[in-house]
User: Fold this.
Amino acid sequence: MKNFIVKNYKYFLAGIIIGLVALALTLMGNPQNMGFCIACFLRDIAGSTGMHSAAIVQYFRPEIVGIVLGAFVISVIRKDFKPTGGSAPVTRFVLGVAVMVGALIFLGCPLRMVLRIGGGDMNAVIGLLGFIAGIGVGAIFLNKGFTLKRSYDLPLLEGAIAPASSAFLFILFLAAPFLFVFSESGPGSMHAPIWAALIGGLIVGIVGQRLRVCFVGGIRDSIMFRQFQMIYPFIMVIVTMIIGNLINGTFNFGFENQPVAHTDWLWNFLGLFIVGWGSTFLGGCPFRQLVLAGSGNSDSTITVIGMIVGAAMAHNFGLASSAAGVTTNGMIAGGICIAVILIIGLLNRKKVA
Amino acid sequence: MKTYIATFFTHFGALTLSKKCKATGIKSQLMPVPRKLSSSCGTCVKFEAENFDVVFHSDVEEELENCYEMLGADQFKALINNK
Assistant:
């Protein structure tokens, strides 16, 4: 037991820190159960930069900048910063689009799924089942020889562009806010103060980089190797959120009337099924992609750009769900995403010698 | 007999080596790469052999990133670096 604690306390601590930051950001103004949501926040940024015009979800989220820069700074300090890339970038872009569409059908990335569960939202538990199923299918493909081929070392600049452009956009947001669009109502209008959001992102980015926190990786490693270390942060975020929400009086157990959520169980399941499967092929959840983008991985940067474009498409084509439920277009797009991921899976198999 | 950890650019590479180990009767295990060795979250193969290169053939080498000798529970010595 003592050995177990010594070996794993960091992973428990990581989950507690992420949970506390998410709680703090919610108390300071972020939407309920949305202290962090990589999908929602990238979608808000897409809206804020005019890539879509859904009026209620447009804001330049400093949390995203914080995560990328936090991962960048700590990876440089700890000599983990390594510009690499070249592993099927266009395929990764497409997977990024699919993952985002799946997340916006569910209404949240895996990180927000965890926060929603911690807020008592049982729709997110249905989502979790779909998520696990998606990762399971992805793991079968991995074991049958799925590969997007290796990455290569790249010039320093290639790895530095993601953190540099995140910082540039943030400065632009501070210096010339009139260039951006901001929601006047809805989730996009609800946000923590800029500096709190940035610092929250930095903390979570640093923790994420140091401990390789990944909401797909934990479940994947549990399924494939019976190794559970990476799942501890996942569990501790839920525990921290439940306690925090109970203290705060915001714990709302059940399916109905959950903040920024719908009750369509099939599409809650399938939305995160898409996210789980696509992310397993990508090698990490949306949060992990941001951290890797900050650590020099240009494959992840391309994935993040794919997610931003996917978010814009999701709102321009009416694919994203809302509290009112899933849209018909969203269901069609969900079907297309599953087909696309399947084709990518089938056509990227190599025979295992 | 020494214990080695081979890291790869892809999960596929690790899988290939693991199959090869099984076919030749070398004791091996697929597992996540130890944090100390990499900040990425790939798959590695831990195996036991007299000499680390007995298991590497061309299919494996293409995907191989590095091979480490395990000196202790969290101590590794890099043997190659196939960047």
Observations:
- The longest strand of chain A covers residues 84-85.
